[in-house]
Write a structure and sequence with these properties.
Structural class: mainly alpha
Oligomer: single chain
Shape: elongated
Helix content: over 70%
Number of helices: 11
Order of helices and strands: HHHHHHHHHHH
Radius of gyration: 25 Å
Number of domains: 1
Largest sheet: none
């Protein structure tokens, strides 16, 4: 006898099983492994090419700043000192050569260490797979919630594919961002630093959130357990947006940016100007 409920359950199980297998395969590579850019052969060549390009742009930024100072002086307007421009150019050059290293060797490797601590505690794709396996006598409601969970893992996979792309873009444009320190009105280095921090923190934040979720749910196979899993996964998926809002809208974001290239740099620049010029 035709049973629409049983047929719908079989259809959903077939549907989410394929998506779950695909997402777990790639999450194991992108999320549960340390982020390693050395597997991309073109990164070193890309960084060198962008450094040459950014150096040319840095010269243009410096010339623009010097011309602007001269025009402001002719117009009897307040302007920065020439010494400040030269000192900022020196700082920008130092940041341009060291920014890729700061991002890939300091921020990303620190994030990798924190991530692997959670992975070593037992976070594997098998742990995730347990959430997408329905009991033999599962009701239609449970099958529906598992389907939602499976598709949330697919969305999580898309986030990590995008994360790799963002890491490559931020690495490529790091030296250009550093040279914008020369001109205050075009300075995007603090924004670059915040984005790097967000991208680096994303992985440990989400992996540890999953670890907490799996420990909270345990081996539960009831409807309420799957509903709790959906709630926690929604928090995991919103992690990048939450981190971005936190770093951009609170004092924490301004503090991080200032530490990298804001207030601390300006104080040091003025000090060096007084000492050497």
């Amino acid at each position: 006898m035709f049973n629409i409920t049983d047929n719908l359950k079989e259809l959903l199980i077939d549907l989410y099983s394929d998506f779950a297998k695909m997402s777990f395969k790639w999450l194991n590579k992108f999320m549960l492994k340390a982020t390693d850019l050395t597997q991309y052969d073109f990164v070193k060549e890309m960084n060198m090419t962008m450094l040459i390009l950014s150096t040319s742009m840095g010269v243009m930024f410096m010339m623009f700043a010097l011309f602007k100072i001269q025009f402001q002086r002719w117009g009897a307007m307040q302007s920065r000192s020439t010494q400040e421009v030269f000192v900022k150019t020196i700082f920008a050059t130092l940041f341009a050569t060291s920014a890729p290293w700061l991002f890939t060797e300091v921020l990303l490797k620190t994030a990798n260490s924190i991530t692997m601590m959670a992975v070593n505690k037992g976070i594997t794709t098998k742990t995730m797979k347990d959430l997408t396996e329905s009991p033999g006598d599962a009701s239609l409601a449970i099958v529906l919630t598992i389907t939602v969970i499976a598709f949330m893992f697919v969305v999580l996979l898309f986030q990590y594919v995008r994360r790799i792309g963002e890491i490559l873009i931020l690495t490529a444009f790091s030296s250009i961002a550093a040279y914008t320190l020369i001109n205050d009105e075009m300075n995007v280095f603090p924004m670059w630093w915040r984005e790097c921090t967000i991208i680096a923190i994303q992985q440990p934040f989400q992996v540890w959130s999953l670890w907490l979720a799996f420990n909270y749910i345990g081996t539960g196979k009831e409807l309420e357990d799957y509903c709790i899993a959906i709630g926690i996964l929604s928090l995991v998926l919103s992690g990048p947006g939450w981190l971005r809002n936190f770093l951009y809208s609170t004092g924490a974001g301004r503090t991080l940016a200032n530490a990298a290239g804001g207030a601390g740099k300006m104080v040091l620049a003025k000090y060096v100007s007084k000492k050497f010029f």
